[in-house]
Every structure is written in C-alpha cells, then in structure tokens.
Write the structure tokens for this entry.
Amino acid sequence: MVFDDDLRFVATAGQAIARHGDQGTCREGDPVRGVFPAELWSSIEPLFDSALAGETRTRELWTTDERHCLMVDVGPLVLDGAGAGAEDAEAAGGVAVVLDITARRQADAFAGQGHNGFEAVFERAPIGTGLLDRDGRWLLVNRALCEITGYTSEELIGKRFDGIMHPDDAANYREQHGLLLAGEIAAFQVERRYFDAAGETVAAMISMSLIRDRNGEPLHFIAQLQDISERKELEEHLLRLADHDPLTGLRNRTLFEHDLRLQVARSQRYGEVAGLMIIVLDTLSGDDRDVNDAALRVVSRALTRRLRESDLVARLGADAFAVLLPHIDEDGAAVVAAGLMRVIPACGIDVGREVLHPSATIGFTLIDSGTASAEQALAEADGAMHAARRARTP
C-alpha cells in the first residue's frame, strides 16, 4: 500500500488486505487505520509514523486469534523533485508491504518440535506425507512428497493442496475436506489426479485424516500421496488386452460383437443404416508364421489409414477382419470395398529376397431396421464373402 503524510491511501494491491480487512475501506483518500482491526493497528501504527520520519522498519506479528502471522515492512516515500537524495529530504508518505507468512511460521514450529525423533521418521517415510493447516495449505512436507510432485518443500509450503489437483477432481476433494472438518467422516482415501511441477498429470492414491486437540477443535490434516501412475498404466494395458488383438492392436471379436449389437439396436430403433464388411486374407506363405504375422500387421495399418475415424475395424480370426461402417448405403459400401481391394494388394511384406503382396476377398451386407441380430448380420456378410470368393474361382 502507498499512503500520504496524513496516513491516507494513495494506492493498494494484494491479497492480504482483501483477506484480513474491509476492501471497501481501501479507496484512495481513506485512512489506512480503517483497514486493520484496532488491536492490530496499535501494534503497527508506530511503523507508519516512523516511515514519515524517514525510517524503514519491519515487524512480524500474529493476529489476536493467532490464526494469521503477518510480516509488515514500512518505509518512507520521497517524491522526485522534493529533495530526493538529500539527507534532509522529507517523506511525502510511505510504502507498506504486508505479507501473510502464516504457513511458513507454522511449518517452522512443527519442524522445531522434534518430539521422539518425529521429524526424522517423517522425513524418511517412503510415502509422500505432509501436514496441512485447516485451510488446506501445506505446513510440512517430507522428501518423498517432494519427489512425487517434483516441487521443493519451499514451493509446496503455503500452497493449497487443491491448487495442484486436476480441476475435474478438485471440487470433490473440497467436499470431502469439508466433511472431515464437520466430523462427519474420520478419514478418506481416493484416487485423484494432480499436476506435478513439470505440468504432467499424475495419478495418485490420496489418504487424508484430521487431527484434533483435546477439545475436539481441528488442528491440522495429515495427507499421504502414493504415485499410482504405473499401476494405472498397467490396468489400462490389461483392459486393452482384454478387448484388443495383441498382434494388430485392433478390436478383438468380443469387443467388435458388442459394438455390432449396439449398431443393430440403433438401426432397429432409429432406422440407421450401416455396412458390415468381412475381409479374409488369402494364404501368403504356408506355415511361415512370421510372414503371416507381418502381413496381418501391415494390412491392419492399411485398413485403419484408409477408413474413416468413425469406422470400426476388428480382427475376427486368424486371417479375417471385420469392418463396421456407420451411416453408409449400399453404393457407399461397394465403393469402400472396391477401394480396399486396391489398397490391400498394394501392401508390401519384405521377406528377404522379395516383397510379397497380400490379396483378400471381401463381402459386405447392410444393417437396417430389418436386421434381426448381430449374428444374422455376421452370417450375411460372411456369406457374401464366400460368394465373392466362389465368383473369383475359375
């Protein structure tokens, strides 16, 4: 805050005034004393008076309820052209900086207690652990927590816990935080996402409980964070293996049939028309598994690149693929089939001395309101594929 020689505001900015005083009294021309509680002003008024006398003074003090510790630094303001630089220059006013250092002082107090080696055990704990004040700001953090989040202890202390959380998860955390304070729950453990110091999203298991004093008043929260990113990646990988073909990465038969049933249901209810295509590769190299696997991978990539993002591609069997083409008519499906008949032979499989080019047979059918089931659609597409193969046989 900048004030004149009558201790009236010239300009103000910052959170401390908004948090501890009445912002309505911070307008230009209003008395500075009006923004502070009377008991607080009596302690810092001498600093403002000293500034008008040309002195700079600093004082650290707690509010009466001992909930906030403030660092107040006040110095003189000498205007240009008013004797600046001269020893007898008179102050036209002053500049005061008020910092809320509550979290830092509380952290210092916790760190200095050292009861029964607590600080050593706390620091060496393998799980990221920290203490939070009643407003959810870090008071004390251990090494593991810093390693997990990527922040230093100086960066974390004073920062709100939900300040590093993913915004989609923060609201739910604040609700549970409130339930702890109200005594409705004793503790909670949830999976949440947070942003590390590099800005990356990390999955964590968060456990939190509340410590109260003998009178039942909240003292501080104990929070523990465990990085479960690797576990989540493994779970996602296992889920993908359950419904995707490990060789090609395409949908497997189980997932595709699920998607096909959904399409049949939409067609029956809303009259959507879709195409279902069966593609069977011709034998490439007898029992040479490596060559056949390479062919399957090459063709699967070609299908994925050639088709629309809304089209669903799956590997149904050893040499068979299926394609579901939403919102397409018979002419459109025929055009897609003709295009794939050109794309597949263009694929090349390097087998050493030569490059092999696969060939395939394609059959398709339409799914509309008259389609009875996914099984019927698959049978019709498979029948069309066999008919196309017979037509190609001399």
Remarks:
- Residues 2-100 form a domain with the Beta-Lactamase fold (CATH 3.30.450.20).
- The two ends are 95 Å apart (CA to CA).
- Confidence is low (pLDDT under 50) at residues 82-86.
